[in-house]
Amino acid sequence: MTQEExxxxxxxxxxxxxxxxxxxxxxxxRSELIDIRATGRAGVYRLRAKDxxxxxxxxxxPGRVRLSIAPKIPVDRLMYLLGYAPDRLQWQGRNVDAAxxxxxLPAVAHAFNRAARWALRxxxxxxxxxxxxxxxxxxxxxxxxxxxSRRPGLPVPLDVTYDEHTIDIPENRLLLGAVRRLxxxxxxxxxxxxxxxxxxxxxxxxxxPVPGAPAPVWQPSRLNQRYxxxxxxxxxxxDGASYExxxxxxxxxxxxxxxxxxxxxxxxxxxxxxxxxRTVGGRPEPADRNHYLAVGRRHxxxxxxxxxxxxxxxxxxxxxxxxxxxxxxxxxxxxxxxLAYCVRLGLDDGHLVYAGGRxxxxxxxxxxxxxxxxxxxLDLSLAxxxxxxxxxxLAETLARVRP
Length: 403
Hints:
Blueprint: E1 7-10, E2 16-19, H1 22-31, E3 34-38, E4 44-49, E5 52-58, E6 65-70, H2 75-82, H3 92-95, H4 104-119, E7 127-135, E8 141-142, H5 144-150, E9 158-166, H6 170-183, H7 190-202, H8 228-239, E10 242-244, E11 250-252, E12 254-259, H9 260-280, E13 283-286, E14 292-294, E15 298-300, E16 305-310, E17 316-325, H10 332-345, E18 349-354, E19 360-366, E20 369-377, H11 384-401
Parallel strand pairs: 1-6, 17-18, 18-20
Antiparallel strand pairs: 2-4, 3-4, 5-6, 5-12, 7-9, 8-9, 10-11, 13-16, 14-15, 16-17, 19-20
């Protein structure tokens, strides 16, 4: 395998043989992005994707290898799901044009470039940043305590605080960080790469976020309205620039990777929660972490959605609990998990929403009543409009079975 070639796999596909050097096998094995098995033939190994999709470049020298893992659902559907990830805006409607782009990374880069072009069409955004400095003249407000403690009795220099009109604001830092990250993604089209370099040139004077540090925090406002779609995509790009191992270690990569079960959970929690509000009102809590299995706030429960409705006293109480399962076949542990949710939340119905398989109901007798564990199926390969209608229909079903 030459350095110019790269390994192409598909999520959910069976094992496929690839010629690899021992160094490349080591890099791929350490990444824990794929499963590797020997074939019995020298220099040939069987590879299979795990639960992530995307493209990365791993290793150096003889161990250098490019790995692309395509999602099993169409790319434009995945982009639609990604638009519902936590703290994202609804950018997918006018900024995603991925139908003719079968590869994930070009689709992400194209959507980002289109949104960045729109955001920067009138030039970069400027804002005010509070700055502390020591100056020979008064500017802004004098920091009296600092002045007296550092230079008692001296008229100058002065310790001051002032608002500086600057390009170096959180919005531009986030935007530049995403531009730099996409420039490191392997296999981008030359046209997309050139446009990204043009965006970076427009943001001269901006300090990009430090790799590994928390992303810059910004607040939506009227002033940054034209930036909001690209900032949602920028957060998505930076989030995909690393992944976690099972033991909690975080690894940065040259590329973008997304863990599909997390994307599905984020999408279902947000989209179904919004549909339930339209259907029955109330308040959705995606990824609710406010309930525990044991006394003493031990063993936190992690349902993907708890929907709250007013109880008999008017105080919101858990009324619907949902868990997303990015798989086709259910397992008994899924039932045990949902049963624990229902018992702890005091609900007679729990809902498991799978990305494939067959629907059904499992009835569990408990003292004094019966708990029903519902299996629903959501076809992620459907077009956006139809998928949205299926979400609305699922919300209506959940509302009907509620006591």
